[in-house]
Design brief:
The chain is 83% helix and 0% strand. The chain is built from 8 helices and no strands. α4 (69-101) packs across α8. The N and C termini lie far apart (52 Å). 25% of the residues are buried. It is an all-alpha fold and 183 residues long. The protein has helices at 3-12, 14-21, 26-61, 69-101, 108-118, 120-124, 129-151, 155-179.
């Protein structure tokens, strides 16, 4: 199955996609993931340019903050796109470590395959925050289904891994606030 139809199938019938990608090379999952991120960044950039032009441009003229304009927002979009690459690596590494500690027989490449597809709803809706909050839960459910279907990992082990990941993010944010306090 080509990459674009996979995007639709993971949203409506994930079991079919997970059955198909179980033995694929991780390179194929990376290609899919980068395509989804690229598609997800386009509406995010458009929304950023619209917000800037209609809401922030007037404010920026009357302040000492330099205006960034569309070029700055496009550079931010490119940076966001490039940050997603190590993001999937870190997520997959942490997921693999926690699941292995819990006794699951999951390899790093397995986590890349599961998470690259599970993040699809979140990435495609990241530009609309209320929608993205709901699709975060959907992505979590897809990750649970993917690990269970592809590698036989019980749902509770994946849930523990997700809670651990959230705690790591909270602690990381707390440490950042200690080193970079807001005025």
């Amino acid at each position: 199955m080509k990459l674009m139809p996979r995007m639709i199938w993971i949203l409506v019938h994930p079991s079919r996609v997970y059955t198909m990608v179980r033995e694929e090379k991780p390179r194929r999952a990376w290609g899919y993931y980068l395509l989804v991120v690229l598609i997800g960044c386009i509406p995010l950039l458009v929304a950023g340019i619209v917000v800037y032009n209609y809401f922030l441009a007037g404010f920026m003229e009357n302040s000492r903050i330099p205006a960034v304009g569309a070029v700055g927002i496009a550079a931010l979009g490119l940076a966001l796109y490039l940050v997603t690459i190590p993001g999937l690596l870190v997520d997959s590494l942490l997921a693999t470590l926690v699941l292995r500690i819990l006794g699951a027989r999951v390899r790093f490449n397995d986590s890349i395959r599961v998470l690259a597809y599970a993040y699809t709803p979140l990435i495609l809706t990241i530009w609309a925050l209320p929608l993205a909050l709901g699709t975060t839960l959907w992505s979590a459910i897809l990750a649970i289904r993917g690990y269970r279907q592809m590698y036989g990992v019980p749902w509770w082990k994946v849930l523990i891994m997700m809670v651990f990941w959230m705690l790591v993010l909270i602690i990381f944010g707390w440490v950042l606030r200690l080193f970079f306090p807001q005025p």
